[in-house]
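Figure 3 (text version): structure tokens given as input.
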């Protein structure tokens, strides 16, 4: 499932392609890919308007139309964008096409059809409804704020990192990556972390997310000590110390850990 770095890369892609382009129409391969109204009604609404700016909060991506209304993209498990300079190419399944007046098209592609596009009248109300915590890359999330979010909380540190109501944007993949770089075991109880440990976690949270975005979330372009490129391999060695990585259950998910770099709590 797309996490903060993935969605940030989508946001930048949207900015670099369809932003400020007048929308001429929209069609969808499947009505379910447009939530809350029919694709035809959304097309009617969008025609002649354009996306004025984009906004990401955690794993959620929005774009404001100059009319004040917003669009949200839910990427589901496999959704992504593709921009084509012409409108010839039409994928058969799982797409919403934003046809642009300049002759190009922005495709929202989701073969598994678990994602969708939805129009929103009130972004603030919607965000409040989602109950999201501070965005994990919000500049206001400094060391002191980070520590305060951990105050009085208990349980596995991995669960805390993935709790969207505390901090928005981190899921299974990047919580593993951040904990690996911070040298903290995923099942470490949060309450057992010292201030120094929390500061280290905070530092790596930022550097890992930023490096993944910088790499365009392409595993091949990520730093050589990242675990992401090794996730699909059945067996892999720690890119830092060479020890065999192990798979464990943490917070109900499968996590990869280095037993030497991330000594266990038990
Ligand atoms: Zn290691």
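Below: residues designed for each position.
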């Amino acid at each position: 499932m797309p996490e903060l770095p993935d969605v940030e890369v989508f946001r930048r892609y949207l900015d670099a392609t369809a932003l400020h382009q007048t929308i001429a129409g929209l069609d969808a391969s499947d009505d379910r890919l447009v939530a809350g109204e029919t694709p035809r009604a959304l097309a009617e609404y969008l025609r002649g308007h354009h996306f004025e700016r984009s906004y990401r909060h955690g794993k959620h991506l929005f774009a404001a139309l100059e009319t004040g209304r917003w669009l949200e993209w839910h990427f589901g498990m496999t959704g992504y964008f593709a921009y084509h300079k012409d409108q010839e190419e039409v994928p058969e399944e799982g797409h919403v096409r934003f046809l642009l007046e300049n002759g190009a098209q922005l495709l929202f592609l989701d073969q598994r059809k678990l994602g969708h596009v939805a129009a929103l009248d009130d972004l603030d109300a919607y965000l409040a409804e989602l109950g999201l915590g501070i965005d994990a890359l919000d500049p206001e999330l400094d060391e002191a704020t980070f520590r305060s979010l951990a105050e009085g909380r208990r349980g596995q540190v991995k669960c805390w990192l993935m709790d969207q109501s505390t901090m928005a944007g981190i899921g299974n993949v990047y919580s593993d990556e951040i904990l690996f770089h911070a040298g903290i075991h995923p099942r470490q109880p949060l309450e057992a972390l010292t201030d120094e440990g929390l500061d280290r976690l905070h530092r790596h949270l930022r550097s890992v997310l930023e490096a993944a975005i910088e790499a365009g979330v392409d595993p091949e372009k990520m730093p050589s000590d990242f675990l992401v490129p090794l996730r699909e391999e059945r067996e892999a060695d720690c890119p830092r110390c060479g020890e065999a990585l192990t798979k464990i259950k943490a917070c109900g998910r499968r996590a990869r850990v280095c037993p030497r770099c991330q000594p266990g709590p038990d």
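The mean pLDDT is 95.
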